[in-house]
C-alpha cells in the first residue's frame, strides 16, 4: 500500500514539475512584470531577489499542480488494481497531466465568465482572442460542465472503491475514503464564501446595543477614482447608484466637494488629517520611507482612538497607502506598499502569475500569496464587502464605538468588474480590446504611452460603459454593507459616509487621466454623502466644500473637540440647518505626470517620464521614490487653481512664467471667458490668498 501511494505521489509530482516548468519557460521567454521596468536597478541590486521571487512562485506552482494532478493519478492507479495489472507510470503521468489541464481549464472558464480581469491583467496576447470563447459561455453551461466532470469522477472513483473494498485491508479502504473527503473539505473551506451574520443576545439584539455608548460609530465607504457626476444623486442619466441615491434621500449631500490633489496618497492623507498637501508634504504617490515615517500630524483615526474608538481599515491594492502612513488605524487589512519594487518583483512574470491567479482569488491565496491576491486591476469588491461585514460584526460586540474605513479599487482603471457589471451598460456587439476592461493598461509601458494618447486612441464609449458598470458594483456592495448595519441594529447609531479620493477626466476638455490638468473639474470633484443618525432631515448643500473638511465634520458629529489647528472646517452646521462659510477656498493642483499629457499648453514646464524619475535610495526596503534632482521642477510644473465664491483663478506654469486665467463661475460656469485682464486686483488677491493658505 505504501509503495503504491509513493508511486502515485511520484507520478503526480512528475506531472506537476512538467506543467510548472513549461509555464516557467514560457514566462521567461515572454518576461514582463508589474511596476516600472527599472532595468539597471534590477540587474544591479535585485538580480538575486528576482531569482528568489520567481523561484518562490515556481515552488507554489509546482505544489498547486501536484494537488491538481493527484486525483487523476490516483484514479488510474485504482483502475490498474481493479484490472490486476501492474500500475503504468506513463498512464498515471498522463492522467495527472490531464487532471491538471481539466481543472485549470475549469478555473480559466469560470474566471473568464465571472471575473475576466483576473485573466486580462496577466496574459501576453491580444484579449480579443478570448472573445469567441467568452461568447460560448453561460451560467448554465458552466454549471453543466461542473456537474458532468464531478459526476464522472465521483462515479468512477465510487465504482472502483466498491470493487476494491473486498480485496483490501481496512486501512487501505479507510485511506481511499479519506482522500476524496479531505479534498472535498479543503475545497469547501477555500471556495465557500460565508457571510457574516450578526450575533444577538437573548433579547434579540446585539449585546452592545443594550449598553449603548453615546458616541456614534463611523463607517466610511470609498471607491478609488469615483466621479460624482457619474452617480444618480448628482444627476447622472444612468442608474449607476440606485441604492446610494436612496440613501442620499436621508442624508446630507454635498454637491460641490473637491480634493486638493487628484492622486491617491496625497488625497487620502489630506482626507484623514484635514490638511492641505503643502502641510503634510505628501504630494505624490512616491513618498519615501522617511517622508512616511516623519509625517507627524493628528489624524481622524488617532483622535478617535484617544476617545475610546476602535479603529479599522480594509482595502485592496488601491488602498495600500492607508498602511504606509500613520493614520491612526488599530487594525489594517491591507496589502503592503504597492509603490515598492521588491513587492512588484514578487508578483512575477505574467504566465506564472496567471496560473496562480486562477486559484489564488480566495482566502488561501490572500494568506500565502498576497502579492498575487492583491494584484492591481483585479477587482476584489465582493471580497472587501464580505470582510467589511465580518469586521462590523466583530467591532459591534464591544462597549466602545468603532470607526471603520473601507476603500475599494472598484472604479479605478482599468475598470474591471465582476459579472454582470462589466457588461451591464456596454454594447452587446462590441468586440474590441476593451471588452472586459480598459485595454493597454496591463504593463507600465502601456500605461505611460496611454497618458499621451489623444481621444481617438481609445474606445471611449466602451471605457465609460465599463466605468459605469464598476460604479454599479460599488453601489451594490454599499447596499450590502448598509443592510448588514440595519440587520445588526446599528444604523440608529452609525454615521455612514460615501466618498472618493479623486475623479478622472474622460476628455471633457481634451485631457484624460487622474489630475493631469486643471481644464475641467472632473478629477477634483468627488461625491460626499453623509448619513448621520443625529441629523433627521435630508439636505442638499450647494456650498463649495473640500475633502479636508471631512475630518473636522466627523469629529463635530461625534461631539469631539479638536485640540490642534487643521486646515479643514466642520460642515456639521450645514447638516443641522445652519449656514457654513460660503467663501471656503477650493485649491486644486495637478499631480505628477507619468508622461506629458495630451493637449498640454505650448511652452509648459516639463520633466522626464516616470521611468526616468524613479529612484530607490533605500535598496533594502525597495521603496520607489523620485530622484531628488527633479523635486523642484516637479513642484514648479504643477498647474493649480483657487476658487473662492464666484471667482476661479487658474495658473498654468510655463517656461516663460505663470499664466493666469480668471473666470466668474456665476456667469460663466464652463470657464470659457477669461477675465484676467479686466480684474487684475482679483488675480492678485487670489494669488496671495493661495500663498498665505499653503504657507
Descriptive account of the structure:
The protein has 695 residues and is α/β, with parallel strands linked by helices. It is 45% helix and 12% strand. It is built from 27 helices and 17 strands. The strands form 4 sheets. Strands 1, 2, 3, 4, 5, 6, 9, 10 and 11 form a 9-stranded mixed β-sheet that branches. A hairpin with a 5-residue loop joins strand 7 and strand 8. Helix 3 crosses helix 17 and helix 4 packs antiparallel against helix 7. The termini are far apart.
Attribute tags:
695 residues, alpha/beta, nine-stranded mixed sheet, four-stranded antiparallel sheet
Radius of gyration in whole Å, from Cα?
28 Å
Helical fraction equals 40-55%
How much strand?
5-15%
How many individual β-strands? 17
The helix count comes to: 27
pLDDT < 50 runs, ≥5 residues: 200-211
Largest sheet, strands/sense/barrel: 9 strands, mixed
Shape: globular
Question: Helix- and strand-based class?
Answer: alpha/beta
The end-to-end span amounts to: 79 Å
Overall mean pLDDT stands at 90
Amino acid at each position: 500500500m505504501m509503495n503504491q501511494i509513493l508511486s502515485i505521489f511520484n507520478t503526480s509530482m512528475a506531472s506537476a514539475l512538467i506543467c510548472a516548468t513549461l509555464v516557467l519557460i514560457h514566462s521567461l521567454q515572454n518576461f514582463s512584470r508589474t511596476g516600472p521596468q527599472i532595468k539597471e536597478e534590477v540587474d544591479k541590486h535585485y538580480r538575486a531577489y528576482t531569482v528568489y521571487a520567481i523561484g518562490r512562485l515556481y515552488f507554489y506552482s509546482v505544489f498547486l499542480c501536484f494537488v491538481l494532478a493527484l486525483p487523476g493519478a490516483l484514479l488510474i492507479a485504482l483502475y490498474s488494481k481493479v484490472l490486476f495489472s501492474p500500475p503504468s507510470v506513463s498512464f498515471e503521468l498522463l492522467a495527472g497531466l490531464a487532471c491538471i489541464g481539466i481543472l485549470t481549464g475549469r478555473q480559466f472558464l469560470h474566471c473568464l465568465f465571472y471575473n475576466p480581469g483576473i485573466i486580462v491583467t496577466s496574459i501576453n496576447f491580444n484579449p480579443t482572442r478570448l472573445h469567441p470563447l467568452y461568447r460560448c459561455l453561460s451560467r448554465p453551461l458552466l454549471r453543466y460542465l461542473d456537474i458532468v466532470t464531478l459526476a464522472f469522477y465521483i462515479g468512477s472513483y465510487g465504482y472502483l472503491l466498491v470493487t476494491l473494498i473486498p480485496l483490501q485491508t481496512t486501512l487501505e479502504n479507510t485511506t481511499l475514503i479519506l482522500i476524496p473527503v479531505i479534498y472535498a473539505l479543503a475545497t469547501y473551506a477555500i471556495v465557500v464564501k460565508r457571510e457574516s451574520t450578526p450575533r444577538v443576545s437573548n433579547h434579540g439584539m446585539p449585546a452592545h446595543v443594550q449598553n449603548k455608548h453615546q458616541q456614534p460609530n463611523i463607517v466610511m465607504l470609498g471607491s478609488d477614482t469615483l466621479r460624482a457626476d457619474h452617480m444618480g444623486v448628482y444627476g447622472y442619466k444612468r442608474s449607476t447608484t440606485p441604492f446610494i441615491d436612496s440613501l442620499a434621500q436621508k442624508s446630507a449631500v454635498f454637491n460641490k466637494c473637491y480634493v486638493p490633489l487628484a492622486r491617491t496618497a496625497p488625497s487620502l492623507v489630506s482626507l484623514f488629517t484635514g490638511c492641505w498637501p503643502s502641510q503634510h508634504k505628501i504630494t505624490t504617490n512616491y513618498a519615501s520611507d522617511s517622508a512616511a515615517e516623519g509625517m507627524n500630524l493628528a489624524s481622524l483615526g488617532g483622535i478617535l482612538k484617544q476617545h475610546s474608538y476602535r479603529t479599522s481599515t480594509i482595502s485592496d491594492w488601491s488602498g495600500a497607502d492607508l498602511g504606509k502612513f500613520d493614520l491612526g488605524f488599530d487594525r489594517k487589512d491591507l496589502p503592503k506598499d504597492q509603490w515598492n519594487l521588491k513587492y512588484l518583483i514578487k508578483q512575477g512574470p505574467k504566465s506564472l502569475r496567471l496560473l496562480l491567479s486562477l486559484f489564488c482569488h480566495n482566502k488561501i491565496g490572500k494568506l500565502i500569496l498576497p502579492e498575487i491576491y492583491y494584484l492591481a486591476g483585479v477587482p476584489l469588491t465582493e471580497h472587501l464587502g464580505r470582510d467589511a461585514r465580518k469586521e462590523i460584526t466583530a467591532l459591534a460586540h464591544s462597549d466602545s464605538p468603532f470607526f471603520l474605513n473601507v476603500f475599494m479599487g472598484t472604479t479605478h482603471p482599468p475598470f474591471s468588474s465582476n459579472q454582470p457589471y462589466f457588461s451591464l451598460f456596454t454594447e452587446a456587439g462590441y468586440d474590441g480590446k476593451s471588452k472586459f476592461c480598459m485595454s493597454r493598461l496591463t504593463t507600465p509601458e502601456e500605461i505611460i504611452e496611454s497618458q499621451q494618447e489623444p481621444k481617438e486612441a481609445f474606445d471611449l464609449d466602451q471605457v465609460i460603459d465599463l466605468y459605469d458598470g464598476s460604479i454599479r458594483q460599488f453601489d451594490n456592495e454599499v447596499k450590502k454593507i448598509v443592510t448588514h448595519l440595519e440587520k445588526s441594529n446599528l444604523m440608529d447609531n452609525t454615521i455612514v459616509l460615501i466618498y472618493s479620493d479623486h475623479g478622472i477626466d474622460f476628455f471633457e476638455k481634451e485631457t484624460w487621466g487622474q489630475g493631469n490638468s486643471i481644464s475641467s473639474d472632473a478629477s477634483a470633484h468627488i461625491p460626499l454623502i453623509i448619513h448621520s443618525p443625529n441629523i433627521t432631515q435630508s439636505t442638499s448643500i450647494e456650498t463649495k466644500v473640500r475633502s479636508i473638511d471631512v475630518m473636522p465634520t466627523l469629529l463635530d458629529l461625534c461631539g469631539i473637540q479638536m485640540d490642534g489647528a487643521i486646515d479643514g472646517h466642520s460642515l456639521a452646521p450645514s447638516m443641522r440647518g445652519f449656514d457654513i462659510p460660503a467663501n471656503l477656498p477650493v485649491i486644486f493642483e495637478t499631480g505628477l505626470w507619468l508622461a506629458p499629457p495630451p493637449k498640454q499648453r505650448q511652452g509648459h514646464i516639463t520633466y522626464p517620464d516616470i521611468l526616468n524619475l524613479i529612484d530607490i535610495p533605500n535598496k533594502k526596503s525597495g521603496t520607489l521614490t523620485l530622484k531628488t534632482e527633479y523635486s523642484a521642477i516637479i513642484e514648479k510644473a504643477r498647474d493649480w487653481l483657487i476658487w473662492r465664491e464666484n471667482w476661479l483663478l487658474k495658473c498654468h506654469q510655463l517656461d516663460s512664467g505663470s499664466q493666469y486665467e480668471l473666470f466668474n463661475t456665476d456667469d460663466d460656469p464652463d470657464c470659457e471667458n477669461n477675465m484676467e485682464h479686466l480684474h487684475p486686483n482679483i488675480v492678485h488677491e487670489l494669488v496671495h490668498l493661495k500663498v498665505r493658505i499653503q504657507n
